[in-house]
Every structure is written in C-alpha cells, then in structure tokens.
Structures
1.
Amino acid sequence: MEKIKDPRQFFFAIICNVCRYRCGTLQEMRLHVTRNCPVQPRKIDLCCGHCGHVFYKWPEIVEHLNQKDMHNQPAFRPEYVFPVDVRPDITLYPEDPENIMVCHIT
Ligand SMILES: [Zn+2]
Ligand SMILES: [Zn+2]
C-alpha cells in the first residue's frame, strides 16, 4: 500500500461516525469516505477531534481543518488524541533551506 504523505498531520483524530474509523489527515479520511468505509461509503458523518463538532458535508470539514495552525491544535478530549507514533516521518520537510535545495524530485 502506498504511503500517504500529507503535511497536515493533526494531533487529534478525525473520526468517521459511521464505522468509528479514525485517522490524522484529511487525505486519509477522504479515501475512507469515498471508498473504504465498510458500513456506508460516501456518507459524510465526521467528528472533528479538535472541537467535537460533527460535519455532514465534506467541504465544511475541509474548510474547518484548513484553518491556520490547525495542525498544531490539541484534541479537545484525551480520547480524541491521535497517536503520534503512527505519524509518517516528517524529515520530508526539512527546516534547513540547504536541505530543501538538494531534495530530489521524483
Ligand atoms: Zn467509516
Ligand atoms: Zn474542530
């Protein structure tokens, strides 16, 4: 399976209320609701672990989570924290500008 690369890894989970699937990026959740939800694909019923708000329209949760600094926000309750150890390696985004310059485009 191809590794998903999304720079916006949230500290909280985005939760599919249909089947309780949870993930830490919009990209993964998009795949889930469009294809992978085992209960009811294409139904949007998503809980934002940052504030507990439930979204029934995909563009609304995208707009909500695309706010500035959202990826630095904590979960509003401990059970909505998304485990840090499942995050992809963030060395893809080096802070040293010289490292960015030598990155190979593949
Ligand atoms: Zn689901
Ligand atoms: Zn929220």
2.
Amino acid sequence: MSRELSAVVVGGGIGGLAAAAALGRSGVRVTVLERGDGRREPGAGLSLSPNAYRALEALGVAEEVERARRSRRRPSSVPTAGR
Ligand SMILES: Cc1cc2nc3c(=O)[nH]c(=O)nc-3n(C[C@H](O)[C@H](O)[C@H](O)COP(=O)(O)OP(=O)(O)OC[C@H]3O[C@@H](n4cnc5c(N)ncnc54)[C@H](O)[C@@H]3O)c2cc1C
C-alpha cells in the first residue's frame, strides 16, 4: 500500500515556491503558507544568473518565466547567459 506524502512549505518567496515546485514534481502534495496578502507591488527588476535560470529549467518553469518577461510592458532584466 503506498502512502501519499504531503508537505507544508512556510513562505511563498522564490525559495518556498521553488521547494514547493520541486516537491510537487516528485509527487508530494504541497501546501504553501504565505503570511503576506500579495498586495505589495514589488517594483523592482529581477536579474537571473545562469545558475538561477538552470534551476528554473530544472523545475520546468523557465519557459513560463520567459513568457511572463516578454509580456511585461516595461523592459526588464533578461536571463542573458542562461544556457
Ligand atoms: C530590492 C531587491 C532587489 C533584488 N534583486 C534581485 C535580483 O535581481 N536577483 C536576485 O537573484 N535576487 C535579488 N534580490 C534578492 C532576492 O529577492 C532574495 O534573495 C530572495 O527573494 C530570497 O527569497 P526567499 O524565498 O529566501 O525569501 P523571501 O523572498 O523573503 O520570501 C520569504 C517569504 O516567506 C514569508 N514568510 C516569512 N515568515 C513567514 C511565516 N511565519 N508564515 C508565513 N509566511 C512567512 C514572507 O512573507 C515572504 O513572502 C533582491 C532583493 C531586493 C530587496
């Protein structure tokens, strides 16, 4: 009999969301608890170093991040040497 694994990740920053995505891809049922209400406007660009971009690729979300970047009206940082 197999048991479903579950995990609770406290904090929905990039660290918590990356952990949740990795656990989810491994079949773990994840709940993310975030104390913020999500209404704060970040207001800053984000530079991705090559290793950060590779981590996004490994998590299977790099294309989605790239799509989001392209859809922004204002120019934003580009994952330059991300491959
Ligand atoms: C102005 C600025 C610009 C930056 N630019 C870059 C950049 O270009 N490139 C880059 O790589 N890094 C950049 N950084 C750094 C980057 O933002 C941090 O390294 C990264 O966000 C850390 O992620 P984290 O998930 O560890 O923590 P956080 O982003 O701090 O996330 C932690 C989350 O946990 C939540 N939380 C905490 N305690 C609890 C609790 N008890 N219960 C529930 N939720 C909780 C918080 O509300 C928060 O949302 C920048 C930082 C700043 C301030």
3.
Amino acid sequence: MADERDKSVVIIGGGAAGLSAANQLQQAGVDAVIVEGRSRLGGRIHTVDVDGSDAAWVDMGAAWIDDHKTNRVYHLIEPAGAGVEPTVPKLTNVRAYDERPSRWVGRVRAVLAMGKMGWRIHRLKKPTTKFAHLGERIDTMLGTKAGRFDEYLLKSVTELLDGGPVSETHQNAFSDGPWEYLRYKEKTSVMVVGGFRHVVDELSASLDQDRIFLDHGVVAVKCWPQFEGSYPVVVETANGATFVGTHVIVTVPIGVLKANAIAFEPPLPAEKQDVIERMGVGNVEKVALTFAAPFWREKPNKAMHFVSVPDPFEPRSVIIDVTDTAGAAPGAAANPCLVAICAADVAKATADRPHDAVESTLATLQQMFPDSYQPPVATAVSTWSADPFSQGVYSYPTPRTRPGDYTLLGESCHDSRVLFAGDSCTAEAYLSSVEGAIVSGERAAKAIIEGVD
Ligand SMILES: Cc1cc2nc3c(=O)[nH]c(=O)nc-3n(C[C@H](O)[C@H](O)[C@H](O)COP(=O)(O)OP(=O)(O)OC[C@H]3O[C@@H](n4cnc5c(N)ncnc54)[C@H](O)[C@@H]3O)c2cc1C
C-alpha cells in the first residue's frame, strides 16, 4: 500500500459527492483537487435569491431532507444554526383545481383522492412481473372508472419522484426488493430555511480553496497502463488544462455519463457502459415566483399548496408554497414565494422554453384566483435538462435496468485508479439524494485512503 503522501486524487465535480470526498481525503492528508465545470460549487444543490432581496431564497435543485432526524444532511447543517420547516403538502393544506371545467375540486373529494393515491403508491411497493412499464401498471390499477384527478395525482407524483415518464419507467420502480437501495420511510420531510446552500457552505468550509478549480469542464480521463509511474491518471479539460494524479473520482451526474461528455481512455468496461445505457435520466424543473402578498393563502400564517389538473390532460405540476423557508435564516423576513414543480416530458419543455413555463404557471394561478391574483415581483426557472453539467436530474430504473446496476455503476475500474461516486452510485444509501451523494463520495475516498490499489 502506498504512503498517503504518494497519493494524489483528481475529483471531477464539486457537488455533494465531490466535496465529501475532498473533505475525507484532506483529513487523511491525501492531496486532492476538485475540477468543476461550472463557475460555482454545489452541482444539483442550487439555492437562488429570486428577487435579490435576501428574503426569497428558493432551492432550484435539492430542497427536501427526508427522515431528517436520521439524515446526514440535517446533522451537517444543524450545528451551524440552520432551521428546517416541514413544508410538505398534507391533506389539510392542499387545494385541488381542475382546469376542465375550471373549478375547485371539493375538499372531501380532494382528501379522498389524496388518501387513495397514498394507498395506491403503497400497492406499488409489491414487486410484480405482469407489466411492461410503470404506466401500464398504474393504468391497470386505476381501471376505467378513475377520475381525471385520481389519474393526475398518481402519475404526477410518481413522475416527480423519479423524473421519468411512467411509460418508460420500470414497473417495480417503487417496489421493495428489486433494487439495491432502500427508500426513505418519509416519516418526516423538511425544507431548510435559507435553502440547501447551507449544505454547500458546510461541505466546502474547511477545504483548501486553492485546490478547487472552477470553470474547468473535463473532457477526457486517460489511464493507460503505460502511464504507470508516479501519476498514472491524466484528466484534461475543455480549456486546455491538465491534471494528473494517482486516482480520479468521477462524480458527474448520470446524464453527463449517458451523453458521453467525458472520453475515457481506455474506454469504460463494457458492463459499466451497459449499465449506463440501461438507466434512465429523469427530468424535473422548477418555476420559482415571488410576490408582494401571499394572495393564495386562506390564513396569513398557513402555507397552502396546490394541484391543478390541466386541460388537455398531462401530468404537469404541483405548486408549493415555500414562503416559510425563503428567509435568509430562521426568524428573518421572507417574501411570499411559490414554486411550481414539473417532471418528465413537461420538465424537458420547461427547460427548452422557460418563458412559456412562467406564463403557463401564471395563467394557472390567474385561473385559480381570478379576484385576488397579483403579478409576480420576480421569477426564476431551472434548466437542469438543458444544462451540459447535469443533462437531466437523477436516474430512474427503465424496464431494462437490472437489480445490481446501481452497485455496478459505483464500482471502480482501470485497476482501481478510476473510481465513481455520486447519487446514482449509492448502493448502501439512498439513490438520487444529497445524503446518498455524500455517502458515495466518502466511500470512494475511503477506498483510496485504505489502499484498494
Ligand atoms: C430539481 C431537483 C430536485 C431535487 N430534490 C432533492 C431533494 O429534495 N432532496 C435530496 O436529497 N435530493 C434532491 N435532488 C437530488 C440531489 O440534488 C442530488 O442527488 C445531489 O445533489 C447529487 O450530488 P452529486 O455530487 O452526486 O452530483 P452533482 O451535484 O450533480 O455534482 C456533480 C458535479 O459535477 C460537475 N460536472 C458535471 N460534468 C462535469 C465535467 N464534464 N467536468 C467537470 N465537472 C463536471 C457538475 O457541475 C456538478 O457540480 C434533487 C435534484 C434536482 C435536480
């Protein structure tokens, strides 16, 4: 096993996985650089101050901490004084609207439909072999008598969770058993006051800033046997820079791997390439809006969330009231904020035409609140699907994804010189989550520290 001082690691990506790996390596005295394509750290954690007032902080990427009492992310930010709020739609603070025939769904009907949705999602936990894809399974479950609202709820919520269209998602995507990870029990689900930027601040606070290279998009990773010597791994960036090391940790998202944005020499093993090909890349986008007044609230201090069934029917979006977490810190003033979240094909269209997405969200609000509606003060739209450094949001299992695929994606290759981390490589934690990314980054760093080479 080589001495720690002989090791030198190039980490591609400064998101949660890359930052956690860097912390672990730095603490062990192993030299590490972070090579990051964007001009900021955080990756798919991105909190924006929508109207620039320091009172409208909205997460355009990761936003919820599930089961926070046992979640690493909460315990990372809690000592620094970050507050959390249980901003989750519940039966008592969600109202449902049907754009055909332009009226509110009765409260009893809405509560019943949401209860039924919970029960149906619970039924999806049982693995089956009967269906070609999740959409077929859901359609069979709904039967011919389910109403527009029931269909909308089940398809929208499942697409929001995975990001993939139900017609391209594995029938057991929500089942216990087939995949090598556990889902959160979701006994609690909280948002961070002031946003997930606190997580990035905590993860990057102790890192040597001179070892972080922003605006360096990696285009090639070379690790030929003839490079054997002090630094057998060479990482090249689009702006002509070269980084060398004994190991590289690749933390780029599944969308970037699928797009072959980084050329690996020698190529990645065929079985890893097959796994990447079999996984789906989901799309989720957010339209954030700030207002002078919370015209949608029935009581000034009670957050209200909305589901609106569009006409023509398509799983489109839910609208979440995030005012309670928009302040800079617990107790600080916050501006009224709403976030419309959409998934799958609608999210792709949102990233391609952000302006249209804002207009359509505002039209929905105007339709719901013809008397009290006010235009927004400021807006922001995420474009993860069109961003070269994410190319989608997170992975979902397609009908071709196999049990074991996520473990395989996380395995190292090229003589254990090229390691993988990130939220799709997290067999022992939770897929598609910041906590999973943190755990996977630490695992890759430990493998290098403990000398798997
Ligand atoms: C809309 C949305 C909502 C979400 N909601 C939640 C939630 O509520 N709770 C939760 O826990 N998780 C949520 N997630 C998922 C969570 O954000 C991710 O799982 C987590 O942030 C992934 O961290 P990572 O380090 O694996 O990847 P990333 O954060 O994507 O980091 C990878 C880094 O690699 C960089 N990169 C990419 N290509 C290159 C290249 N060629 N060269 C150099 N650098 C490159 C990227 O810029 C990025 O900084 C959400 C994500 C999105 C997009």
